[in-house]
UniProtKB/TrEMBL annotation:
Gene3D superfamilies: Glutamine synthetase, N-terminal domain, Glutamine synthetase/guanido kinase, catalytic domain. It comes from the Eukaryota. InterPro entries: Gln_synt_N (IPR008147), Gln_synt_N_sf (IPR036651), Gln_synth/guanido_kin_cat_dom (IPR014746), Gln_synth_cat_dom (IPR008146), Gln_synth_N_conserv_site (IPR027302), Glutamine_Synthetase (IPR050292). The keyword Protein biosynthesis does not apply. The lineage of its organism: Eukaryota, Viridiplantae, Streptophyta, Embryophyta, Bryophyta. It comes from Sphagnum troendelagicum. This is glutamine synthetase.
Length: 195
């Protein structure tokens, strides 16, 4: 009998590709996804099939009219499944082709497609911050449970076991982004332990 790890690492490259369709859920902060089997590699999102989901289960459609359609917008290499498997970033529309209210990408794409905007050289400087929590107590990593860490100062861009908690998780996330082809310029610890 195979172990779970052996099955998870089973290669399907000669038969199937797994495309993980990913979109933003109804809260605007939750990610949703579902996997789709493809017969072979795909590198252009326009060549991927649209797909649907039950928007009433994600807070994006009423129960009596719950179908929402996923439109593939971008493809990234899947750092979890690897091989030719892909992550597919999608946005969501009604069956009539109207962007649902939580589809902010559609409005942004409309703005960026305007001639006066598309002729400009656009620069983006996004900084994605996050805080790692201790699993069992839901308290920031590096903080004493129920208490507070020392004052800020040594944690920002800090190094060492008493200043940079969760570095293995941060490094794994960084490498997964680079593997996937996500343009990321770098990482650093923030002003609070676990951030």
């Amino acid at each position: 009998m195979s172990s779970l790890d052996e099955l998870l690492n089973l290669s399907l490259e000669d038969k199937h590709i797994i495309a993980e369709y990913i979109w933003i859920g109804g809260s605007g902060t939750d990610l949703r996804s579902k996997a789709r089997t493809l017969p072979g590699p795909v590198t252009d999102p326009k060549k991927l099939p649209k797909w649907n989901y039950d928007g009433s289960s994600t807070g994006q459609a009423p129960g009596e009219d719950s179908e929402v359609i996923l439109y593939p917008q971008a493809i990234f290499k899947d750092p979890f499944r690897r091989g030719h498997n892909i992550l597919v970033i999608c946005d969501a529309y009604t069956p009539q082709g109207v962007p649902i209210p939580t589809n902010k990408r559609a409005a942004a794409a409309e703005i960026f497609s305007k001639k006066e905007v598309s002729e400009e050289e656009t620069w983006f400087g996004l900084e994605q911050e996050y805080t790692l929590l201790q699993k069992d107590v839901k308290w920031p990593l590096g903080w004493p449970v129920g208490g507070y860490p020392g004052p800020q100062g040594p944690y920002y861009c800090g190094t060492g076991a008493d200043k940079a908690w969760g570095r293995d998780i941060v490094n794994a996330h960084y490498k997964a982004c680079l593997y996937a082809g996500i343009q990321i310029s770098g990482i650093n610890g923030e002003v609070m332990p676990g951030q």
